[in-house]
């Protein structure tokens, strides 16, 4: 009710300003599309809104380069609208939990950065407003980013966040090692496995390919590539789980082949740190990771490249997850109009290009994806290409139960503790039981 009341007041204010055009006050822009009568959403809103009188805002964002960008945005916003903005360092992973207590107490940020997989929980808890400019953002931003920051509210899918970036995994490879072997980057998993065998024969103690067997964030690429799903209805219906179907069994079979032919190690011995170390030391041809890994390899002076994941035997590129950070407007904000305007200002192409320059994180804006500065970067092109074969990581609360259930399943498969079908059935059962416990 609070959300609907505030949004109604915003609409009323826009109407009054447009009709009266008060001297000295910002005027609302012309509306190109009128909202349908009785609509509960603001998907057709394209007009500007006006900050409340005497508004002052708090902005939560990460530290380091992202924090420097947030300070820059705050400064520019104040110059543009005369609204002071105080930046505070609260990480995008901590912000949703902190807002649960700080929001109702009236001490939370007006705008904050959060990962998209928290959206479902934040909507259920009534912590955030929906995006007032949803129609404009659906046109401006990549579909996967829009989907990522959207969630169902009373069976209606609404866009809540203002997307900041998009990220996912791709295939890292060592250019020097491939050249020594006379190889080109593998286009298929079959080719990757055969290259790995040849490389390992010539270089004892090294590996052709490594993957964390229990890390479902990585393994899902195979599951999705074989056309299995996590939840029904485009990952919004937790009553249907597809992780022990035919496609998942094919993914499990591929993992067994990788283990048997090129990675004969126990799951517990294949950690992210082990994989990174091998790659930095020139003892690994291939592995899967995201743009966050590039800086470390550059500092280690590795001559590496990135490409889309190799195709499966069905001809499909593995379907990986994408993640999206976004700005969200606190539903308990005393200044929802000013806060909404800040989130919109921060996610303009101008501000997002500045964010890319400071952080290297890829903006989710359609316009910036085609920006020459971004397109000319080899790594950016590879991650953006893989994003075409990706889906947003599900953001419903039930997704949190999947990680543990699938880690149990794929650990058992990898360590030969149980047959794939029995392992996946057990993992899915664990997910179902965890979901049931959430509802009690």
TrEMBL record:
UniProtKB keywords: Cell membrane, Lipoprotein, Membrane, Signal, Sugar transport, Transport
One GO MF term attached to the UniProt entry: carbohydrate transmembrane transporter activity
GO cellular component: ATP-binding cassette (ABC) transporter complex, substrate-binding subunit-containing
Gene3D superfamilies documented for this protein: Periplasmic binding protein-like II
Keyword match Lyase: no
Major localization listed first in the record, in broad terms: membrane
InterPro entries: Maltose/Cyclodextrin-bd, SBP, SBP_1_CS
Name the record gives this protein: Maltodextrin-binding protein
Top-level taxonomy: Bacteria, Bacillati, Bacillota, Bacilli, Bacillales
């Amino acid at each position: 009710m609070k959300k609907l009341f505030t949004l109604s007041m915003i609409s009323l204010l826009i109407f009054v300003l447009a009709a009266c055009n008060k001297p000295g006050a910002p005027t609302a822009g012309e509306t190109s599309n009128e909202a349908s009568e009785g609509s509960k959403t603001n998907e057709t809103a394209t007009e500007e809104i006006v900050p409340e009188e005497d508004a002052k805002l708090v902005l939560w964002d990460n530290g380091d380069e992202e924090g420097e960008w947030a300070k820059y945005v705050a400064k520019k916003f104040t110059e543009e609208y005369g609204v002071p903005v105080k930046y505070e360092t609260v990480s995008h992973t901590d912000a949703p939990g902190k807002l649960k207590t700080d929001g109702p107490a009236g001490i939370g940020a007006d705008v904050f950065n959060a990962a998209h997989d928290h959206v479902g929980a934040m909507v259920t808890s009534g912590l955030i407003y929906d995006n007032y400019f949803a129609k404009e953002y659906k046109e401006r931003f990549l579909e996967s980013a829009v989907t990522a920051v959207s969630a169902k509210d009373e069976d209606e899918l609404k866009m809540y966040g203002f997307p900041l970036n998009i990220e996912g995994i791709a295939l890292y490879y060592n250019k020097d090692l491939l050249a020594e072997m006379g190889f080109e980057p593998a286009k298929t998993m079959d080719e990757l496995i055969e290259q790995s065998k040849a490389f390992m024969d010539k270089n004892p103690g090294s590996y052709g390919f490594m993957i964390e067997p229990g890390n479902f964030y990585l393994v899902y690429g195979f599951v999705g590539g074989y056309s299995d799903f996590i939840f029904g209805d485009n990952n919004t219906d937790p009553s249907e789980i597809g992780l022990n179907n035919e496609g998942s069994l094919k993914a499990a079979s591929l993992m067994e082949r990788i283990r048997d032919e090129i990675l004969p190690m126990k799951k517990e011995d294949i950690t992210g740190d082990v994989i990174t170390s091998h790659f930095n030391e020139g003892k690994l041809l291939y592995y899967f990771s995201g743009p966050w890994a590039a800086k470390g390899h550059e500092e280690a002076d590795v001559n590496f490249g990135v490409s889309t994941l190799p195709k499966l035997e069905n001809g499909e590129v593995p379907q990986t997850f994408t993640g999206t950070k976004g700005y969200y407007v606190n539903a308990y904000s005393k200044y929802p109009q000013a806060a909404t305007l800040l989130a919109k200002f921060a996610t303009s192409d101008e501000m997002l290009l500045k964010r890319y320059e400071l952080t290297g994180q890829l903006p989710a804006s359609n316009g910036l994806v085609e920006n020459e500065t971004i397109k000319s970067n080899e790594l950016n092109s590879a991650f953006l290409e893989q994003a075409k074969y990706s889906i947003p990581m599900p953001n419903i609360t039930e997704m949190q139960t999947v990680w543990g259930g699938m880690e149990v399943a794929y650990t058992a498969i990898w360590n030969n503790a149980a047959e794939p079908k029995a392992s996946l059935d057990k993992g899915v059962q664990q997910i179902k039981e965890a979901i049931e416990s959430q509802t009690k």
